[in-house]
Design brief:
Elements: E1 8-13, H1 19-32, E2 37-41, H2 47-57, H3 67-91, E3 95-99, H4 102-112, H5 117-128, E4 135-140, H6 143-153, H7 165-181, E5 186-190, H8 195-205, H9 207-210
Parallel strand pairs: 1-3, 1-4, 2-3, 4-5
Helix pairs in contact: 1-8, 2-3, 3-4, 3-5, 4-5, 4-7
The protein binds P1-(5'-adenosyl)P5-(5'-thymidyl)pentaphosphate.
C-alpha cells in the first residue's frame, strides 16, 4: 500500500483577519479525523526562521530594511522552513497547516511594497523550489471590523502591522487579485461572523481535499 499523501494548507489575509484562530480550528478538525497535522507559521516555524522573524518584525536600528532586503529575509526564512519542516512533514504523509506562506510575500512585498510579483516568485523558486500549498484560504473582511479586532486585543503593532492604512489596503487588493487569478488554488472566505461559522465555510472549501481522508484511512 502506498504511503498517504500529505496536504499543505496555508491561511492568508490581512492583519486581524482571523488566520491564527481559523488555523487552530482547522487543526482540531483534522486531528479529530485521526490525521497527523503539523501546525506552523510564517515568518517562522523553525529556529532559523524564528530568528529571522525577530529581525523582520523588530528591525535593528532606525532605518528599517529596504524593500529588497525585507523580501530577501522573508524568502530566506521560508527556505529554511520549507526545507527543515514543511517538506519533511509532507513526505511523512502529514498535513501541514501554515499561518501565512508565499502569497503574503506576493501581497505585502510584491504588491503593497512595489517589488512586483515576478521578483517574489523568482526568490521563491530559488529559495523553496517554488513550493505551493494544495489550497490557500484567503480570509477577507471589512477593514474597520478587522482593525476593531486588533484594537480589542490590545496588541502592540510590529514594524509591518504599523504601516499606514494605504499600505494595508494595497495588501488586501493584492491578495484579492491573486485569488481572482487562481480561484481554485486561493479560495476567498468571508472572515466576518462567529469563528465557528467561518470555520464551517473553510471546511466546505476543503471538502474535495478531505474526501476519503481520515476516519480509518
Ligand atoms: N508578512 C508575513 C509579510 O510582510 N510577508 C510575508 O511573506 C509574511 C509571511 C506577521 C507580519 O509579517 C508580514 C505580515 C504581518 O504583518 P504576525 O504577528 O504573524 O506578523 O501577524 P498576523 O499574521 O497578521 O497575525 P494577527 O494575529 O494579527 O492576525 P490573524 O492571525 O489573522 O488573527 P487572529 O486569529 O490572531 O485574530 C485576531 C483577533 O481577532 C479575534 C481573535 O480572538 C484575536 O483577538 N478574532 C475574532 N473576533 C471576532 N470574530 C471572529 N471570527 C474572529 N476571529 C478572530
Amino acid at each position: 500500500m502506498s504511503a498517504p499523501e500529505g496536504r499543505f494548507i496555508a491561511f492568508e489575509g490581512g492583519e486581524g483577519a482571523g488566520k491564527s484562530t481559523q488555523a487552530r480550528l482547522l487543526v482540531e478538525a483534522l486531528q479529530a479525523r485521526g490525521l497527523a497535522v503539523v501546525t506552523t507559521r510564517e515568518p517562522g516555524g523553525t529556529l532559523g526562521a524564528e530568528a529571522i522573524r525577530r529581525l523582520l518584525l523588530d528591525p535593528p536600528g532606525d532605518a528599517g530594511w529596504t524593500a529588497e532586503a525585507e523580501a530577501l529575509l522573508f524568502a530566506a526564512a521560508r527556505a529554511d522552513h520549507v526545507a527543515h519542516l514543511i517538506r519533511p512533514a509532507l513526505a511523512r504523509g502529514e498535513w501541514v497547516v501554515c499561518d501565512r506562506f508565499v502569497d503574503s510575500s506576493r501581497a505585502y512585498q510584491g504588491g503593497a511594497g512595489g517589488l512586483g510579483d515576478d521578483a517574489i516568485l523568482s526568490l521563491h523558486a530559488f529559495g523553496s523550489g517554488g513550493l505551493r500549498p494544495d489550497r490557500v484560504i484567503l480570509l477577507e473582511g471589512d477593514e474597520t471590523v478587522l482593525a476593531g479586532r486588533l484594537t480589542a486585543r490590545g496588541a502592540i503593532s510590529d514594524a509591518i502591522e504599523g504601516r499606514p492604512a494605504t499600505y494595508h489596503r494595497a495588501v488586501a487588493e493584492a491578495f484579492r487579485a491573486l485569488a481572482v487569478a487562481d480561484p481554485v488554488g486561493i479560495v476567498r472566505i468571508d472572515g466576518i461572523g462567529a469563528p465557528d461559522n467561518v470555520h464551517a465555510r473553510i471546511m466546505d472549501a476543503l471538502a474535495d481535499l478531505l474526501d476519503g481522508e481520515g476516519e480509518g484511512r
